[in-house]
Amino acid sequence: MSKSEQLFAEAQRVIPGGVNSPVRAFRAVGGTPLFIRRAEGAYLFDADEKRYIDYVQSWGPMVLGHAHPEVIEAVVEQAQSGLSFGAPTELETELAEELCRLWPNMDLVRFVNSGTEATMSAIRLARGFTGRDKIVKFEGCYHGHSDSLLVKAGSGALTMGVPSSPGVPAALADHTITLSYNDAEGVRSCFEALGDQIACIIVEPVAGNMNCIPPVPGFLEALREVCDQHGALLILDEVMTGFRVSLTGAQGFYGIEADITTLGKVIGGGMPVGAFGGKREIMEHIAPLGPVYQAGTLSGNPVAMVAGLETLRLVEEPSFYEPLVARTNHLVEGILAAGKAAGIPITANKAGTMFGFFFTEEPQVTNYQQVIACNNQRFNQFFHGMLEEGIYLAPASYEAGFMSSAHSDEDIEATIAAAERVFARLD
Ligand code: PMP
């Protein structure tokens, strides 16, 4: 019995499913989740000290790789001055200034502790600001697990077969309108019928929770246009794409203006941090300036703030993204070529430092229906084959992959060589 098997059995006695976030349980792919002892750069080490090249990177935050020495040093130093004060610190202002300087249309920003809190609060703000109840989201997009957003959701909700969770009151779910990602016409006709009741559209500007689906040309532009026409707000959920697709996320890359932006993952450098920010006249509706309530005992936590500050300092260095994106492209091209050489129908999407593979005959995957029609059994075989080879991919086919600056060219070559061997063994 491996150490992970033993630890998983113990965990299941006291934690539902043995995990604190469902996809970690390996339910979709079968087998035992790796229990991690430590991580360094591009590598994870499991409880048996086996090394894996990691393309999950804690589901996105570790764009510098794990345990970056400068981030760890800043965290340790800050921890010695106290873990939490429940009172303001200058560190919060520093990180807020950094975000407001970098992100277009971010005049004010509020820190929270997770992406879930960021999107939940952004939606409350949009409802409070507009005085409207309905929200529009897209099938397969995941925005955390708050009630209004667990309707036809992606990520673990989709993997576990409960995209619309029990426990969400029907009266609330009725206010969530779910449309098809990358279908601008569907959005236009929805707004023609209900535009004056819709508070906001919330969207992943590159969908990363139904594998990786970039927006087709014109889709994000159409969202901006209907929001402007009908007095609704556009919330770009960049929890995953922020500092991943580019330094200024997907909105910088595609040139789309958000009314409210939600951030998380990279801005906390691996510590629990989320944020929502936007135009001054909207953000001024948040307490204590305005009546829309939002709060948090640990929000703006000093240790988390320094992890974020140090991470952003490093990613802002000139030419940080260029080699990272080149390495992502190299990995994707290499695996595609290996699959094709082995006669495996496979395609891929990529956006900056995010990527995803699809086992399908289709030349291009741009929507949810195509994603769920992919060959999951083949993905599962591929996943386990790669795991045996020491390559850690997300343990579900509806997740994106992530590159870090710690991945070397040798790591990429080793991953492509492993994929060649695994493809040769697939049915
Ligand atoms: N929004 C997006 C786009 C996400 O990808 C996620 C998590 N993967 C969330 C929100 C929720 O963030 P958290 O898990 O930190 O609550």
From TrEMBL:
<dbReference type="GO" id="GO:0042286">
    <property type="term" value="F:glutamate-1-semialdehyde 2,1-aminomutase activity"/>
</dbReference>
<dbReference type="InterPro" id="IPR005814">
    <property type="entry name" value="Aminotrans_3"/>
</dbReference>
<dbReference type="InterPro" id="IPR004639">
    <property type="entry name" value="4pyrrol_synth_GluAld_NH2Trfase"/>
</dbReference>
<keyword id="KW-0413">Isomerase</keyword>
<comment type="similarity">
    <text>Belongs to the class-III pyridoxal-phosphate-dependent aminotransferase family. HemL subfamily.</text>
</comment>
<dbReference type="InterPro" id="IPR015421">
    <property type="entry name" value="PyrdxlP-dep_Trfase_major"/>
</dbReference>
<comment type="subunit">
    <text>Homodimer.</text>
</comment>
<comment type="pathway">
    <text>Porphyrin-containing compound metabolism; protoporphyrin-IX biosynthesis; 5-aminolevulinate from L-glutamyl-tRNA(Glu): step 2/2.</text>
</comment>
<keyword id="KW-0627">Porphyrin biosynthesis</keyword>
<dbReference type="InterPro" id="IPR049704">
    <property type="entry name" value="Aminotrans_3_PPA_site"/>
</dbReference>
<dbReference type="Pfam" id="PF00202">
    <property type="entry name" value="Aminotran_3"/>
</dbReference>
<keyword id="KW-0663">Pyridoxal phosphate</keyword>
<dbReference type="InterPro" id="IPR015422">
    <property type="entry name" value="PyrdxlP-dep_Trfase_small"/>
</dbReference>
<keyword id="KW-0963">Cytoplasm</keyword>
<protein>
    <recommendedName>
        <fullName>Glutamate-1-semialdehyde 2,1-aminomutase</fullName>
        <ecNumber>5.4.3.8</ecNumber>
    </recommendedName>
</protein>
<dbReference type="InterPro" id="IPR015424">
    <property type="entry name" value="PyrdxlP-dep_Trfase"/>
</dbReference>
<feature type="modified residue" description="N6-(pyridoxal phosphate)lysine">
    <location>
        <position position="265"/>
    </location>
</feature>
